[in-house]
């Protein structure tokens, strides 16, 4: 039977990618084998190399090739401030603003009871260690403004209680460049309450 | 810079999959590295093995581990009939019907001028060779009933002109189990013209 469907192992492996069902996996396998075998080789190598060489930064928990990532190695940043984000992509977005010069901590996830991700499954114990260095004075919560991101922010806030650290949250409000007419009501209500 | 984005090579490789943009690729890379490193290893191996060991059947052009696929090796089938399909998935669908006992030829694509796929880019020359064996009496066109599938069927029909081979096409009509009210008008019109 297996030789009747020689691409089956590849199709099954592709289905482990998030958002890829059996039809997409079949299309991908066919495309790679028929039109882009070079792409299949490149992807195979990239997967193996990522698994072999990418690790977590021992200070901020982001993905890195070294034991400590370039940002954490940069001694010129403001060590009193620690920005807590969900993912390396969020860290990259913060960096692109050019408005932040402190260090980061990457949770590598967010609390999501629906997906079985609790407070223990994200990097909270390591965050606690990181904050206990006596230098961090402010923890800036930059988790998403979604139910799950807010739950994560709440868990971090609770974790910091009783410690000599100020906990702040990114401001909620109307996005730059938007017309009020098209902004959702919850955002406007928040912006009104938090007006300054 | 590269160590700031250690997953970039993986993200770029994932973007070569059809239908995967940069956001999906980032999500896939993050998922594999953070939640399913075993999946990354499995996928890496499956890609490499597929590229290394899967080839085209020398008779019907489908994917196979051997020089000749199991269906073409099966001497008990009706050698007078050859069913032309676009992909191995279409071949599998025909087999699942249990209603066909002839052999197959898999074009591995269809004519699609929009994607730059012309008559020369699909397996037409090899089909011509296959049909020239003097045993095939009927070529059954089972390409898709889309513009591209019809164009492909037309190209095969032209190719067969002047040869001692009858060319037939799967019947167009109302799908089994459907209520007329919900069938598109083009299908009903075809079913009416081709009534029997």
What is this entry, summarized?
Two copies of one chain form a homodimer. In chain A, 42% of the residues lie in helices and 13% in strands.
Determine the number of helices of chain A (DSSP H or I, runs of at least 4 residues).
Answer: 8
CATH architecture of the domain at 63-169 in chain A, please?
A: 3-Layer(aba) Sandwich
Structural class label of chain A: alpha/beta
Work out the oligomeric state of the chains in this entry: homodimer
What is the CATH third-level topology name of the domain at 63-169 in chain A? Dna Topoisomerase Vi A Subunit, Chain: A, domain 2
Low-confidence stretches of chain A: none
Major sheet of chain A, described briefly? 4 strands, parallel
Beta content of chain A comes to 5-15%
Helical percentage of chain A: 40-55%
> Over the alpha carbons, how many angstroms does the gyration radius of chain A reach?
21 Å
Shape of chain A: globular
Question: Could you list some keywords that capture this structure?
Answer:
four-stranded parallel sheet, Dna Topoisomerase Vi A Subunit, Chain: A, domain 2, homodimer, 8 helices, 196 residues, two-stranded antiparallel sheet
Describe the secondary-structure layout.
The structure is a homodimer of 196-residue chains.
Chain A: H1 8-14, H2 22-35, H3 37-53, E1 55-56, E2 63-64, H4 70-73, E3 78-85, H5 88-97, E4 102-106, H6 124-131, E5 138-141, H7 147-160, E6 166-169, H8 185-193
Parallel strand pairs in A: 3-4, 3-5, 5-6
Antiparallel strand pairs in A: 1-2
Helix pairs in contact in A: 1-2, 2-3
